[in-house]
Each structure stands twice: as structure tokens, then as C-alpha cells.
């Protein structure tokens, strides 16, 4: 059965659609398709669902790698419903979405012709783009110089300057760890907000004789309850994790500006990355 989604909804759960008899039906996730004529099928006695979102019947296996990522250039958008910041990909008759954590990153990749070699996570969930909050951070050039001179690991720690908001949880810690080995510099950046156990992680590798990065990935790390985050700073130790989710990877020699711009889009407090690259030390 087909219906046309109208601009009328209750909450974020369902919208109304008009069928040929001009009768209104309730369509789960209909808000994604205002003004569109889509195929729906019965989901419960009172609700319909777009046929391509009825995952109860899904038996396909996504072509993902060991990190659960899929090649972006192999994904096919459903041009009828997909649009920037709300891209929808069709895989074997079902719709898949970009997780809110990387919506802005994927748009950056499209706008800067960086699709080739990029791998992303896709999801069945259709959620809105999350908002971001500004704060502060570090100096990339100084870190690079120290790594080359000292030929050993270098650490740094930066945090939000809005101390008056600490009680409200509006603060973040930003950890940087750099290592030099076999003429390759490895950068690891972590950001943690408030007292959360979730760390946002950016990892990139650069040859000291090149201005491009041979590897770049983004992930979220969930640390164990017994973990002490300051171990990142004082002991330069990786923290034991209870879970890790890889969201993006590219091994095609990204430029520094692209790596840092994409990291900014991923980290909740994005101005920290500006300070990491621009702050005078």
C-alpha cells in the first residue's frame, strides 16, 4: 500500500499519511518523508511503517569489515528520499542511516571529495543531528617539534576554561599523546565530557617526511568503571575498556586540515581542536 506523508505528526514517533481513499493512517518515522509518496505496510494494529524500515523481516548481512565499517563509496543513496545531513542508503531493499555521531563528518567527506577509501558505520536508527558546545584546547606544531627532538612520547592535558559551569557538567578534558617510531608520528587524542565513561577518540599517523597522514580513524571508548582517566596524562597508559565502537577510518593520505576538521566534527567540544592547532605556546 502507498500513502503520501503530510505535515502533521504527534511527537517524534509517527506522522500521518494519506492513502488513496483520503483516509489518514499513522506512519512510524513518517517525519523523514514529508510530501513523499512511499510504500508502507502494517506494523501493528494501529500503525504502519515504511516498507524499507520494517527490519523485522530483514535477513541481509551487511558487507562490513572487522570494525563494523562499510565502504562509503559503495553505498547507494535512495535519491527519492535522501538529502544532505539526512542521507538514506538503500541496501537490498532496506534503508540505512548515518549515526548522529558522524553526520557532520560524512557531509564534510562529500563536500571535500574525500569519499574514496573512507569507511563509516551505518545504522537502522533514524535519529536527529546532535548539537555541539564550544570550549578550548592545544598546540599541534609544538607537539610535533617535541616528538622529533625528543624521539619519545609526549603527553598533554587541556580542559574547558568555563570553570563556573563545572557543577552543571559543562566541562571537558582533552588528552593528547604523541609517539615517534620508525619515522612515523602517531597522534592520539581523547576527549571526555563531565564524569562520563565515554571517551571520544581520534587517531592519526604521519610520516615525518610528509605532510599527509597514512591512517586516520575515529572511535568512542567506554572505559571500565574502575578506570582512572588521569592515567592517560600521568602514566601514558591505555585505559581498560568495556566497549569500543569504531565510527570512521581512512588510509588514503588525508591532509592535516582535513584530519583536524573531521576530528572537530566528531568531538562534542570542538573548539578544543582549534586550540590544539592554533594556540600560541
Can you walk through the features of this model?
With 281 residues, the protein is α+β, with helices and mostly antiparallel strands. The protein contains 5 helices and 16 strands. Strand 11 and strand 12 form a beta hairpin. 30% of the residues are buried. Helix 4 runs antiparallel to helix 5 (271-278). It starts with a strand and ends with a helix. Strands 6, 9, 10, 11, 12, 13, 14, 15 and 16 form a 9-stranded antiparallel sheet that branches. The protein folds into 3 domains: 2-52; 58-120, no CATH class; 140-278, no CATH class. 15% of the residues lie in helices and 36% in strands. The model is unreliable at 128-138 and 159-170 (pLDDT under 50).
Domains counted in the coordinates: how many?
A: 3
- What proportion strand? 35-45%
Order of helices and strands: EEEEEEEEHEHEEEEEHEEHH
Low-confidence stretches: 128-138, 159-170
Q: Kindly, what is the distance between the CA atoms of the first and last residues, rounded to a whole number of angstroms?
A: 64 Å
Helix content: 10-25%
Mean pLDDT: 77
Total strands: the figure is 16
List the helices and strands and how they pair.
Layout: E1 2-10, E2 14-18, E3 24-28, E4 37-42, E5 48-50, E6 70-71, E7 88-91, E8 94-97, H1 103-111, E9 119-120, H2 140-150, E10 154-159, E11 172-181, E12 184-193, E13 198-207, E14 212-223, H3 231-234, E15 241-250, E16 254-255, H4 256-266, H5 271-278
Antiparallel strand pairs: 1-2, 1-4, 2-3, 4-5, 6-9, 7-8, 9-15, 10-11, 11-12, 12-13, 13-14, 14-15, 14-16
